[in-house]
Amino acid sequence: MQDYKWLNEYCLNRFGSQKALESHLPTAKTPAQLRKISADRYLSTLALRVFRAGLKHSLVDAKWPAFEQVFFGFDPEKVVLMGAEHLERLMQDTRIIRHLGKLKSVPRNAQMILDVAHEHGSFGQFIADWPVDDITGLWQYLAKHGNQMGGLSAPRFLRMVGKDTFIPTWDVVAALNAQDIVDKVPSSKRDQAAVQAAFNQWHAESGRPMCQLSAMLAFTVNH
């Protein structure tokens, strides 16, 4: 694989200057900022990610105020009490997206957030404290203990809340393939470990957050 020096020089050649490159890079929240996010905001964002999957984001976002209303502001303590009959009634509510599987995921993910908070003090604490050099481990945790959080949903959710992570988008995977790290979307633990090791090396060489390295890697793919 190429080292960070190559990655940085490639991006500088593409954008022309360090300032121009920096303007195209995302930023991550600090651990302190992640701890301050309330459980209801984490659940709302998690649910938003689930409903966005496979749908036009603008369509989902336009309906989100109604979702906030029918799910009690995404208060996990209230949402977790929603039973099958309540969810069936929501299937008749034309203000929201009526997808039963995704509706069922909301109380199930509320339970996960409550379980994590019971063990770690708060869900925000748990997210903030998870080491970035094992961010794929957090993907795996969310996919296993959450509902409808497989595929790219876990890393995309983390990016949405501000947790530092790389995302194996098609461009990132193409770049990783070009460097003989993986040849497909890293869905197995083995492939995720290989990608994590590569990002850890670039992180050690540069000190840059994973989200910026992810964007820089995507920039190496020609469009």
Account of the 3D structure:
- The protein contains 14 helices and no strands.
- α8 (100-120) crosses α9 and α12 packs across α14.
- The two termini are 21 Å apart.
- It is mainly α and 223 residues long.
Keywords:
single chain, 223 residues, mainly alpha, 14 helices, elongated
Large-scale geometry: elongated
Q: Give the strand tally.
A: 0
Helix coverage percent: 55-70%
Number of helical runs? 14
Low-confidence stretches: none
What average pLDDT do the residues reach?
96
CA-atom Rg in angstroms: 19 Å
| H-E string | HHHHHHHHHHHHHH
How widely separated are the two ends? 21 Å
Brief summary of the model shown:
With 223 residues, the chain is mainly alpha-helical. The chain contains 14 helices and no strands. It is elongated and about 55 Å long.
Topology:
Elements: H1 4-15, H2 18-22, H3 31-36, H4 39-52, H5 57-70, H6 76-79, H7 84-90, H8 100-120, H9 123-129, H10 135-145, H11 153-161, H12 170-178, H13 189-206, H14 210-219
